[in-house]
């Protein structure tokens, strides 16, 4: 199904300008690169990219602001984040519009992304009064051992196109509460939403009297990111994107003994057991696999179904896929918007062709829509491919809505298939068998950073730590105690006796 006609690029440009104006953001027009929209695949505005001098100036300013910000009491730092959260609430609709225009998300998902930003601000405000250290029993009389958490420094945030605002907020709200300053290098594919977020944070800083340079935005491509990666003034590089990017960034930051927080690609699977509630499973699978046009790091890419129910489940999924409304993400009926670029569509077609060459069978989807009306846009039908084996292409992340279906006979086989990929982000099992569910969540079950029961792989809440293992990079962001990555612990030994006792009973002098 395809909905109403697409908006024109002129409409989208005007809409983006209106949202940016209402938010108060100015567009640094220039010839550096283009802001574009995947809705029509066409350019919106030419923008100036940050130069080496801009990066140097931002680094110096951010470092200086850090010296003031780190001594600001944490609950007062929280007031900046509280104000940011209020401004995000007030501007929710315009922010969502910019996400729709630049990332092609459907409206409810774009609003969801803004809600996620608001939620993490609320979380970080609370966190600003809970940066707990521990007191540890000392082996020496008259001594106290303590652990104190201090702000780390400048945090460089490099973000991906597919969560163009939420990933920034997970990092920034927590880093600011922790006493760090932030320099953000957003995806070159989504500069406009970053201008809006930066402006709102600037306004919040003005209103609460925080140093202006607690946050800096640097637009541009990977070369701008590389400058942050290599600069020793950036204490932590938090980079979200492809495993390819992480493979380059990780060693470069390690070479200068900097810290990284890497949030990279996933190849997420769901196991569907014979006892599963299939109504619930179908809903969970379709949202996780086809939602956001398959462009979430947590998108469901592999379905591992028990042989006894495979045909029934696959028939229900293919029927649901055949009815998915694909098209204009501003249309309230649309569930699947465009892929980010035609290159992403080429990647999808290439992966499906390889899967077919490796024995896979396309069950539904895989076609291109709206090619006549929008030749530069990439509207793809989510596709289901049944495969006998977990071949090379199935073990890769293709950032598009391809769902590979594998079958299993024993639970052990399902777990082995599940874990036999290089990535380790999100996972789930649909079952009503408690033993199976618990085994899946145990240390011999899923090897992912996120493991769910009776819910799909995507759509995490901010309260939990987010991230994954293996080639997903090992980082954890957002809730739980992920804040510790943004601070440095110091162990303190305090002698309140009048005797110097050495540890381990060492005598000296
Ligand atoms: P990408 O790797 O192409 O780009 C991500 C960012 O890294 C961009 O800002 C880009 O300019 C920058 N970059 C690229 N190479 C760089 C380098 N060598 N040095 C410094 N910066 C560099 O990713 P993308 O296409 O924007 O996003 C899709 C990918 O991101 C998928 O693989 C997806 O799974 C992943 N992702 C992961 C998470 C997570 O939390 N694990 C979240 C969102 C997206």
Distinct ligand kinds: nicotinamide-adenine-dinucleotide
The portion of residues assigned to helices is: 25-40%
Uncertain residue segments: none
How would you state the average pLDDT, rounded? 97
Number of helices: 14
Radius of gyration: 24 Å
Major sheet: 7 strands, mixed
What best-fitting shape do the alpha-carbon axes yield?
globular
Structural class designation? alpha/beta
What fraction of residues sit in β-strands? 15-25%
* Distance linking N and C termini: 85 Å
The order of strands across the largest sheet is: 12-15-16-11-10-18-19
Number of strands: 23
Question: Can you describe this structure?
Answer:
By secondary structure, the protein is of the alpha/beta class. It has helices at residues 9-23, 52-69, 74-90, 92-103, 107-127, 166-177, 191-208, 222-230, 243-255, 278-290, 307-322, 342-357, 411-419, 434-441, and strands at 29-37, 42-47, 135-136, 143-151, 154-158, 181-185, 215-217, 234-240, 259-263, 268-272, 300-306, 361-364, 368-369, 379-380, 383-386, 402-408, 423-424, 426-430, 450-453, 465-466, 469-470, 477-478, 487-495. The strands form seven sheets. A seven-stranded mixed sheet has the order 12-15-16-11-10-18-19, sandwiched between helices. A five-stranded parallel sheet has the order 7-6-5-8-9, with helices on both faces. The longest helix has 21 residues, at 107-127. The protein is globular and about 80 Å long. 53% of the residues are buried. The model has no long low-confidence stretch (mean pLDDT 97). The structure holds nicotinamide-adenine-dinucleotide. Nicotinamide-adenine-dinucleotide binds at residues 158-163, 167, 185, 187-188, 221-222, 225-226, 229, 240-242, 245, 248-249, 263-266, 297, 397, 399, 425, 472.
